[in-house]
């Protein structure tokens, strides 16, 4: 029988690193749950969760951070959802498929802005955007003016690090 062992997406990578007056480090694994409302259930889901993010928004609901992730799609970062959410939306665990990077410091916005195809200055804090980092699809969260989280598919982490100037 095959004995599988869980490994970190960041195993053998050299993080943390300092780039352009900002620090980049690996984020600890997070519980990420995708929420896709059933047709006609958006209002009921908003009421049940205490909110649902509109495009570009991050909604804090208790100890869960609801992040806009696309049309009629949100990611819930946190320990769990209120019981019964499945009645209003499709719920899928995305935790093992994503890896997160924190980028913060006085040069964080400038460093990231040079690598994204949209005006990062227009992303409010807190706010979220789906974009491309080179050829890598990413979810960008702006938590504070100079503090970002970059969420990338685990399988594309090395490519994302290369695009950010940290790949070796």
Please tell me about this protein's structure.
With 168 residues, the chain is mainly beta. The chain has 2 domains: 17-29 and 97-163, Gyrase A, domain 2 (2-Layer Sandwich), CATH 3.30.1360.120; 32-95, no CATH class. Helices cover 12% and strands 39% of the residues. The protein has 3 helices and 11 strands, in the order βββαβββββαβββα. The chain has a 6-stranded antiparallel β-sheet. The radius of gyration is 17 Å and the shape is globular. The N and C termini lie far apart (35 Å).
Number of domains: 2
The biggest sheet amounts to: 6 strands, antiparallel
Q: Which descriptor suits the 3D outline?
A: globular
Number of E-state strands: 11
**Helix content percent band:** 10-25%
CATH 2nd-level architecture of the largest domain = 2-Layer Sandwich
Average of per-residue pLDDT values: 91
Determine the structural class based on helices, strands and strand pairing. mainly beta
The helix/strand series, from N terminus to C terminus, equals: EEEHEEEEEHEEEH
By CATH reckoning, the class of the largest domain would read Alpha Beta
> Would you give the CATH topology of the largest domain?
Gyrase A, domain 2
CATH superfamily of the largest domain: Probable tRNA modification gtpase trme, domain 1
The strand line-up of the biggest sheet is 1-2-8-11-10-9
Instruction: Give the count of helical stretches.
Output: 3
Please mark out the parts with pLDDT under 50 across 5 or more consecutive residues, or reply none. none
């Amino acid at each position: 029988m095959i004995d599988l062992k869980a490994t970190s997406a960041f195993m053998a990578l050299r993080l943390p690193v300092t780039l352009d007056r900002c620090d980049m480090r690996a984020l600890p694994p997070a519980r990420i749950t995708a929420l896709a409302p059933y047709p006609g259930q958006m209002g009921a889901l908003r009421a049940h969760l205490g909110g649902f993010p509109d495009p570009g928004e991050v909604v804090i609901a208790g100890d869960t951070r609801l992040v806009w992730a696309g049309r009629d799609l949100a990611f819930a970062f946190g320990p769990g959802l209120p019981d019964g959410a499945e009645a209003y939306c499709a719920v899928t665990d995305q935790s093992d498929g994503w890896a997160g990077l924190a980028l913060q410091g006085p040069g964080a916005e400038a460093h990231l802005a040079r690598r994204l195809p949209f005006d990062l200055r227009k992303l409010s804090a807190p706010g979220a955007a789906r974009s491309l980092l080179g050829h890598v699809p990413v979810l960008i969260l702006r938590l504070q003016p100079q503090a970002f989280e970059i969420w990338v598919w685990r399988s594309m982490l090395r490519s994302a690090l290369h695009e950010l100037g940290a790949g070796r």
